[in-house]
Every structure is written in structure tokens, then in C-alpha cells.
Amino acid sequence: xxxxxxxxxxxxxxxxxxxxxxxxxxxxxxxxxxxxxxxxxxxxxxxxxxxxxxxxxxxxxxxxxxxxxxxxxxxxxxxxxxxxxxxxxxxxxxxxxxxxxxxxxxxxxxxx
Amino acid sequence: xxxxxxxxxxxxxxxxxxxxxxxxxxxxxxxxxxxxxxxxxxxxxxxxxxxxxxxxxxxxxxxxxxxxxxxxxxxxxxxxxxxxxxxxxxxxxxxxxxxxxxxxxxxxxx
Lengths: 112, 110
Fold this sequence. Notes:
heterodimer; A: 112 residues; mainly beta; 4-stranded antiparallel sheet; 11 strands; 57% strand; globular; B: 110 residues; 6-stranded mixed sheet; 0% helix
């Protein structure tokens, strides 16, 4: 599980706060992903970065803003979130056209 | 849209018994993967089966794929307490979006 790390592991924020989630992969992969996991729902793909370029934005509200400064780091900037945004946010990475993705442990986000 | 759907949603068995989970999907696939997720943690890749394969083994795991029925099963033999987790099937990956089902929550009773 140390191949992909995420910080913080837990975050409680008010609706007017600005915070950022960080993901780092140590696997030499060139694609990174943000997923949202809510209770009793399938994993929802939010963003995909390949070679540091965003290749997919899955109709995510603009209060979520991703940033990929290099192939090892991925951020998710959060601004004026809603209580329904409370969820487990998972980062993943993969290499090239490989089907398998490697996941981080997630950030448990609670919006109050 | 949801591609994979696991069945059952929850399963409790005694340690040492075998656990079988099923996954159905809607469209044609190149491959199907199974992942495990321990409570509140990230997903861990278990096994991938390609569309031209019918069965695959990895340790205590056995996966089958029936493309005519658009279904797959995951069998865990001789279950252990550490197998307690949620199990997800996923289709796609590579250049396609990886799409997950809602998962089967497996509880192994010691």
C-alpha cells in the first residue's frame, strides 16, 4: 500500500473552507486518477491525468479543482463544498495502457 | 453508468468455508478485474481475466468469466478472517474508464 500515498487521511471542513488533498505515487506511473466513493454507490471517476495532462473530467462540479504538477503528484483543491460531498476520496495510478490501477488509502472527507 | 453489479451485496461465512461472489455486466468487455477493499482503505487489485479466458487462478482465488452471460464469479477457498473486506468487479481500464460495481461485503466469522 505504500506505492500510492494520500494526505491527509481524515479531513473535516466547513462549507466555506478551502483545503487540498494530496496524492503521491512512487511507482513510476504516468497516469493518475481521482475517485469519489460514497456509501452504497459505485466508485465514481472524477478526473484522469495522463502524462500530466487532464484527459477526463467526469462532469465534476467546479468546487473540485485538480492539479497535476508532475507525474508523481496529484492534488484535489476543495472550495465551498456541500455536505453531500462528504465521502472517501481515492487516488490511483497506472502505467501506460496497463489495465490495473494502484490505489492509495484514501482521504475520508466530512463537510459540515 | 454502472457496468458491473455484484451479487450478493453481503455475505457472511464461517472461517474455512468457501466464498463465492458474482458480477454481471452490461456491455462487451476486453477484460474484467476484481479488487478488494478493506474497511475505509484503498482498493487492491486481485486478479484480471481477459475476455478470451474462461478461468484463472491465483493462490486461493479462482475467477471465471462467461462472456455469453456477461458474468464473472470470484471464489475464495478456505476463507480466513483476513479475507473480510468488500470485493468489487471492474471493467475497462487502460484507455477506457475503469468502471466498478457496488461491491460484495464479505464477513468471515472466526
